[in-house]
Amino acid sequence: MIARTWHGYAKPEHADAYEALLKPEVLPGISKVKGYRGAYLLRRKLENEVEFITILLWDSIDAIRAVAGEDYETAVVPEERRKYLARYDTKAAHYEVASAQGLGGME
Q1: Is residue 36 within 8 Å of residue 56, measured between CB atoms?
Q2: CA dist., res. 27 & res. 40, Å (int)
Q3: Residue 31, SS3?
Q4: CB-neighbour burial class of residue 94 (10 A; exposed 0-12, middle 13-18, buried 19+)
Q5: Do 83 and 25 touch, CB atoms closer than 8 A?
Q6: Is the omega angle on the peptide bond into residue 24 within 30 degrees of 0, that is, cis?
């Protein structure tokens, strides 16, 4: 399994609106994509902004390529969401999930 991680940062006054756009799915229609296993959305208040981290779980890099394209490390940030972000990573990082415990079926 592969975990795709990405960071975005919003001004405090835009954080709730940005978070609302990510529910119920981090990306529109992603739950229907073959190889998608689920996601986590993390939120942390910093001094002058709110950090969001998305962790999307995939069966393989090939499943990610099917959504993100051949340059699969490039972040996928829909245009309508960018207005809520002060800044964001232009690249996503990918990790092999070496272990997962207590996460229902991911052991």
Answers
A1: yes
A2: 12
A3: helix
A4: middle
A5: no
A6: yes
Partners of residue 59 on adjacent β-strands? none
This prediction has a pTM of 0.87
Q: How many residues does the chain have?
A: 107
Indicate the residue type of 105: G
For the chain, the helix, strand and coil percentages under 3-state DSSP, each to the nearest 5: 25, 35, 45
Cα separation, 19 vs 64, in Å, equals 23
Token readout for 8 is 């975005």
Mean pLDDT for each consecutive 10-residue tract of the chain (107 residues)? 97 96 76 89 96 96 90 90 95 94 60
